[in-house]
Amino acid sequence: MGRLRQQILILHLSHSDLDASVVAWALYDGAKSADELQMQSGDQQEPPYRSALDAMRDGWFVIQIPTLPYFVRGQEHEVGHLPYEYVLERRVEVDG
Amino acid sequence: MARVPREHLLTAKQMAQFVTDGFLVFEGLVPKELNEAVHADQEAGKGYWHTSEAIRQVFEYLPVKGVIQSLVGENPVYDHSALHVVGPNQRHAQIWHADSIIDARPLAFDIQAMYFSADSTKENGATLVLPGSHLRRVSNASISRYKNILGQRQLTGPAGTIAFLHQGLWHCAQPNQTDRTRYMFKLRLRPGEEQRGLFNTEGYDDPEVRKIVGGFPHAWQGEMARAENVERAKLWRYVCGDDSVDTAFEGVLTRMHL
Question: Is the ipTM of this complex over 0.95?
Answer without folding.
Answer: yes
